[in-house]
From TrEMBL:
Protein name, UniProt field: Glyceronephosphate O-acyltransferase
Biological process per Gene Ontology, one example term: phospholipid biosynthetic process
GO cellular component: mitochondrial membrane; peroxisomal membrane
A Pfam family assignment: GPAT_C
Gene label: GNPAT
MF GO annotations: glycerol-3-phosphate O-acyltransferase activity; glycerone-phosphate O-acyltransferase activity
Primary localisation category: membrane
Pathway assigned to this chain's UniProt record: Phospholipid metabolism
Amino acid sequence: SVSSSFPFSLLSISSSDETNTIDGFEDILEERRNSSDLKYALRCYAPVLYKGVTPCKANMLKNIVLQSDQLHYVINQVSQESGEAPDIIQEEASVILEEMAHRLQISTVRFFAFALSKAFKTLFQHVCVNEEGIQRLQQAIQEHPVVLLPSHRSYMDFLLMSYILYTYDLALPVIAAGMDFMGMKFVGEMLRMSGAFFIRRSFGGDKLYWAVFSEYVKTMLRNGFAPIEFFLEGTRSRTCKSLTPKLGLLNIVIEPFFKGEVFDVNLVPVSISYERILEESLYARELLGVPKPKESTSGLLKARRILSEDYGSIHVYFGQPVSVRSLAQGKVNRSTYNLFPRHIPRKPMEETQSFVNDTAYRIVRLQEDNMVLKPWVLMASLLLQNLEGLELSVLTEQTVWLRGLALSYAAFLDWPDHAPTAKVVSSSLALHRGLACVSGGRVSLVVGEPLGPVTPEEALFNRAVSVLSCASYRNQVLHVFLRPAMLAVAMLHLSDEVYNCFSFLWDMFSNDFILCPGDIVQDFEEACYLLVKTGAVQMPQQDIVMTDIGQPTLSFFNGLLEPFLQGYQVVCRYLCEEASEGLTEKQYIPAVRSFYSVLCVFTGNLRCYEVLSSDMQKNALAALLRMDAVRKVKVADQVTLIVNKMAVNSIDDILGKNRMISHINQTQISPGLSLVAVAEDLYRDGLTPSYIR
């Protein structure tokens, strides 16, 4: 029995046993395989627009923006601050807008429709879309301005979105894209002519750029010329976990509602689920510090080799439109916006900023809830907890068990109907043969075969690529199990005060996972409900008691979070024992990698490869900064990290010391000793891990 220290009445969550179903999806490639792609591209395209507005030409749209009161106000303000004539600032604004604006042309859209049909039929078995979501979107577009908010796991996302809307005769979106794409010869302009508008990754303090950008977006939204599409996460997720939402663009598209310029705005979450990710190995290498390839036309042409690969299926789920008006009811007092002229830019009030932040998290949670999971994500979760490999029969048996657990937690799982489990597992292994293989009836992760002798660093890197690539699939199911997993860790390892431990983990991991601000009690209740529902725990008299059949479930959940717990511990140990006083933010990531490399070779521990990921290192640092265990101090042009070693040690103690860290405590490693030197000494002593030998 474990005391839960409940600060609330026992469980308010509904005890509904409903699970998500995969029914209602249509494979849009089926028709493409049976009819002419040219006829499809050249067919009559006449989408219904918002309240029947007439489509606006690109030049007319730019004129409306340049003549707006808000932009003129900022131009005069910048003119006064800089001492330059307003006409010069106006010309600068015009240049910015010319660089930014889309030039949507139906002829280019038709070219992409034809080319993408060919590519998608080669790359994917199916592209499935929920028809009910399309019907809802069609209705929403006619009623209020629409903002499409897709998840972002691949470069393919924005092309896929436009392709689907064209297929269903819906208004094509205008899409916020990074400047990186604009530098691609020919392709950049073609993207612009298919609806992309290009923005800088960061604006800094450029008041004029921000004014042009925000007025351009708001003009399109107010007039309903086209749905606006952008990625709340701001960038592709290299880990395939949802990223903390960025609020800039969301603030812009919601502001017209606050100012009474539109009656409502519909936010439409879209979940795009890939059975196999085109960039899987590229992402793993980027997370390990290999520079991201620059977007270029030549790079695109070289990537043609992927056309010979099978990437399985894609599921695209258009969620229920979310009314900003309904969300804001009772949360935001819009009357305060009447106290100032609408054209004067104002910093969002705290109440408004809190509402936008909360809305962003809710939308990303909706994206997660509607992700369609394939059997491989369950298999990857099991393989990562058994890096030495599993017997195929055991993997099959455990996958069936995990499938039942996922469905009982309302996971959106696409499992082939009436197919024998053995066939489902073998099909998944065949599709992901680059990540896992079967040898002698045993399944294990594939590690790239070296062409010759490798250094310990190279061996470690190759193994880490394999683990991180596999982890990108496990990460897709984490949102289903996260809350009960945190409760399981709190029960099994940390303390008798389960709720306090859960709260600590919730705060610690709030950069790694989507945990809505203020939802900690609700999340704890959900975790308790789900563990009780599946029989893993009982709750007599508000205590939490593991049942006789609960050990496998709690053990699996503990293993699911173990890479994060160990990764954060390695970061804490580095900051306490190895970090120099002048450690800069730029030095932090390579320094942690180097520290762990020595630990890994010295101990042969194979459980913590994910700490080599820059994503985990950044999230761990963000958590320590938020918990005041580390501070940032700007010295000259560099940001230095000031470590409160007592606080970091305390966090390390709460996380719990695992065997690897404890073993390192008993071993002396000279500060200047290189990884290679350590490996050579260990080899002479017969202690080198087998994969390095």
